[in-house]
Amino acid sequence: MAAEAESLQRRATSRMPYAGLATHVALAFAFVVALLALAPGAPARAWCRMTTSQTPAPAGMCPTGIRLEWTKPCSRYHIFGAGSHTLPIATVRDVFELSFSQWETIECGGATVPGMPNLEAHLSAEASQCDRSEYVTAGANVSTVVFVDDWAARDYDPSAYAVTTVWHSTRTGEIFDVDMEINEDGRVYTECPSPAGCADMRVDLQNVITHEAGHYFGIAHTSVVSATMFSMASSGEIGKRILEADDIEGFCNVYPPGHFDGATCDDTPRGGATLTCGEVDDGCGCSAPGAKGSTARLGLALLGVAVASLLRRRARR
Fold first, then answer.
1. Mean of the per-residue pLDDT values for the chain?
2. Rounded CA gap, 96 and 92, in Å?
3. Are the C-beta atoms of residues 138 and 317 closer than 8 Å to each other?
4. How far apart are CA 295 and CA 156, in angstroms?
5. pLDDT tens figures, 184-217
6. What band does 55 get if pLDDT is binned at 50, 70 and 90?
7. Backbone torsions φ then ψ of 57, nearest 5 degrees
């Protein structure tokens, strides 16, 4: 069990800070660019992939390490039963379907398998009963989406909209499980009108979730300001609902045509499926929840806000 725990890593990404000062613009941009990826000395590029590395990359580069990806063509996630305080569950489900479909219907060179998108994430009809991000190393799991009203108690950046946690193998980069926490502490989520967006402080949920879905599939941040995977956004904008060329290029790098040829669709999580949370194992030699460790968090910030980084590690039995 200890060896398995050491092979797992939790990489969380996508903070969407909500408000801040204009004086932080330079700092925010510099920090985001410093976390964009590829080996030192390699040419800079816009999109980046998430990797196993916990070390911030030099400015304009992508992080080193093994790149993260799903190794099977479909996965399953569940929305926590309580849903959102500000939107009906049917609307929330519609938003998630629309947001994920932006990625699932990408055609990489027009060569996707007929009738089968490059990659699918199935939104289950069953509600999750787990309200936190976790991975059980020796048992069943649930990829959970939870709207959070105790954001500060979870030690997250108060200006963040969301944190997406990608559990993966440190040896191969295989993604095992993804959890998404959405900050509903003082936030009002809605469906902003097109094309203007929201003029008040309400947040367009589809704008947020389309960005988070990119992280679900292993895509990191980009320096292209207009792209969905750019790390900053205004609260009422809707521009990240639709993918840009940079987003598509990054996705097709992870899942090129033929990537899943011959694979069958089985969305059962590794170790089996459950709807409930597991238990913390404090005796495996790893740090317990709340301890500092080796997990990086990137983010989608309001323009003008510095992106925060926290390093954490959690071990689950």
1. 76
2. 6
3. yes
4. 13
5. 998 899 999 999 999 998 999 999 999 999 999 9
6. confident
7. -85, 160
Which value, to the nearest 10 degrees, does the dihedral of the CA atoms of residues 299, 32, 43, 209 take? 20
Give the strand pairing for 175-183 and 162-169: antiparallel
- Assign 123 a pLDDT band (cuts: 50, 70, 90): very high
Q: How many CA atoms lie within 13 A of 71 on its CB side?
A: 11
Q: Is the pLDDT of residue 301 over 60?
A: no
Domain ranges of the chain: 2-41+49-299
What pLDDT does residue 88 have?
Answer: 97
Do residues 157 and 106 lie in contact, with contact meaning Cβ atoms separated by under 8 Å? Answer: no
101: how many CB neighbours lie within 10 A of its CB?
15
Buried-state track 18-32, b at ≥16 Cβ within 10 A, e below 16: bebeeebeeebbebb
- Residue 48, classed as helix, strand or coil, is coil
- 158-177: pLDDT as tens digits: 878 899 999 999 999 999 99
SS3 of residue 31 by DSSP: helix
Amino acid in position 290: G
What is the DSSP secondary-structure string of 83-137? Answer: --SSS-HHHHHHHHHHHHHHHHT--STT-PPTTS-S-EEEE-SSPB---S----T
Provide the 10 A C-beta neighbour count for residue 165. 26
Instruction: Please state whether the predicted TM-score (pTM) of the whole model is above 0.90.
Output: no
Give the pLDDT confidence score for residue 7 in this predicted structure. 54
CATH number of 2-41+49-299: 3.40.390.10
For residue 189, the tally of other CB atoms under 10 A from its CB is 25
| Cα(193)–Cα(36) distance, integer angstroms | 32
For residue 139, which amino acid is it?
G
For 53, how many CA atoms within 13 A lie in the half-sphere containing its CB? Answer: 22
Q: Which amino acid is at 230?
A: F
